[in-house]
Amino acid sequence: MGQVMSCRTTYEHGLFSAVQFGDLKTVETLMETDPTMIHQSTLYNRNSALHIAAANGQIEIVTLLLERSVNPDLVNRNKQTPLMMAAMHGNISCVEKLIQAGANILKFDSLNGRTCLHYAAYYGHSDCLEAILTEARTSHVALSWGFARFVNIRDGKGATPLHLAARQRRPDCVHILLDSGALVCASTGGYSFPGSTPLHLAARGGSLDCISELLAWGADRLQRDSSGRIPYLVALKHKHRQCAALLNPTSAEPMVWPSPLKFISELNQEAKNILEKALMEINREREKSILKGVAYSVPSPSQSDAGTDDDISEVSDASLCCICFDQVCTIEVQDCGHQMCAHCTLALCCHNKPNPTTACLTAPVCPFCRSTIAQLVVIKIEVENSTDSKELASSNPKRSKRFRNCSEGSSSFKNLSAVGSFGRMGTRGSGRIAAENDCVDKA
């Protein structure tokens, strides 16, 4: 009897070791010898072979086990599923395979009441996070729970995935979650200090990148936790001086994305990327000034760096923004067809501080004709293939580079004040109508 048990234990140990190190032939041999072994688990943590394969990124063995009808939602001693283990260790191929096999993304563990989304956010695996969110958008979760509810799902201590990503200094995950509708000012329950927002937790962790992302999405620097502390005080307590400088209520406020329901989330990805680059550049200039201890003020185009005037003179007057007279037009308003640069588009659509009591879902209006903006268009610069055009481009490399940057969706947004730009609107006629465009559905 004892010998039989000892032999079985040896076989099981051999199976789990083979699974851990990806020895596919040994796993197949052992399963043929005793098919019931695939349903065994380790002695203490009660991890199945599928848990071990998912945690170690052994995609071939994960595939083999799933093909042998192993339940993708098996749980170990802590109620963790193989999908949680794969998300924890950042094994994207295993995450995708388990989701494809029907793994439940709404399972909660018994340690902290966390889902696979919490694990991906906590450990900073942005690819796994995106895969899980994609599944949530297209699966029954969106219908039964609602996608927004899933993105803001709380663990046993009241922490959302955004709280965990901010605390663990995961700026990529913070960005993905905010872009998916995570609540930027949500307060925790018992996690960390009660009442902490993601901004409090980012201040505690000392991540400048996370703080910048949160501020750009409208995080409130004056919101207090249950102890009455604002994020600025949290950063000071943990000796994160640079973070404290950005969070100081007396420093200049950053430019903030419009409310997702109002504007930005309804743009297609190309237009959104252009505006996002502009906004982040504007805020980076602000941060540099604050961190240098210099009062923040954006210079006017006339005070720009040397060489800027030369660049402007080389760009066709028909391509300059009629609001700031400094940047190349990259965005067109539909249906009227007026053009402006990405920076001025942001100044039109963004606000410094969201106010839920006065929030309005009315779409912004064109600054030239005051008609409602139904769509935004990313302007395509047509490249001529004629010999004359090529000779002109080779003889004028600065102009060629400027147009190439525009067509790639990037432009220099420094040294331009949004407020000052709109103050000069009356100095010149209305915007131009584009000949070539690419529609971006805003509705």
From TrEMBL:
<dbReference type="InterPro" id="IPR056760">
    <property type="entry name" value="RING_XB3-like"/>
</dbReference>
<feature type="repeat" description="ANK">
    <location>
        <begin position="157"/>
        <end position="189"/>
    </location>
</feature>
<feature type="domain" description="RING-type">
    <location>
        <begin position="321"/>
        <end position="370"/>
    </location>
</feature>
<feature type="region of interest" description="Disordered">
    <location>
        <begin position="389"/>
        <end position="412"/>
    </location>
</feature>
<keyword id="KW-0833">Ubl conjugation pathway</keyword>
<keyword id="KW-0862">Zinc</keyword>
<feature type="repeat" description="ANK">
    <location>
        <begin position="194"/>
        <end position="226"/>
    </location>
</feature>
<dbReference type="GO" id="GO:0008270">
    <property type="term" value="F:zinc ion binding"/>
</dbReference>
<keyword id="KW-0863">Zinc-finger</keyword>
<keyword id="KW-0808">Transferase</keyword>
<dbReference type="InterPro" id="IPR002110">
    <property type="entry name" value="Ankyrin_rpt"/>
</dbReference>
<dbReference type="InterPro" id="IPR036770">
    <property type="entry name" value="Ankyrin_rpt-contain_sf"/>
</dbReference>
<keyword id="KW-0479">Metal-binding</keyword>
<dbReference type="InterPro" id="IPR001841">
    <property type="entry name" value="Znf_RING"/>
</dbReference>
<dbReference type="Pfam" id="PF24921">
    <property type="entry name" value="RING_XB3-XBAT31"/>
</dbReference>
<protein>
    <recommendedName>
        <fullName>RING-type E3 ubiquitin transferase</fullName>
        <ecNumber>2.3.2.27</ecNumber>
    </recommendedName>
</protein>
<keyword id="KW-0040">ANK repeat</keyword>
<keyword id="KW-0677">Repeat</keyword>
<feature type="repeat" description="ANK">
    <location>
        <begin position="45"/>
        <end position="77"/>
    </location>
</feature>
<dbReference type="Pfam" id="PF00023">
    <property type="entry name" value="Ank"/>
</dbReference>
<dbReference type="Pfam" id="PF12796">
    <property type="entry name" value="Ank_2"/>
</dbReference>
<dbReference type="GO" id="GO:0061630">
    <property type="term" value="F:ubiquitin protein ligase activity"/>
</dbReference>
<comment type="pathway">
    <text>Protein modification; protein ubiquitination.</text>
</comment>
<dbReference type="InterPro" id="IPR013083">
    <property type="entry name" value="Znf_RING/FYVE/PHD"/>
</dbReference>
<feature type="repeat" description="ANK">
    <location>
        <begin position="78"/>
        <end position="110"/>
    </location>
</feature>
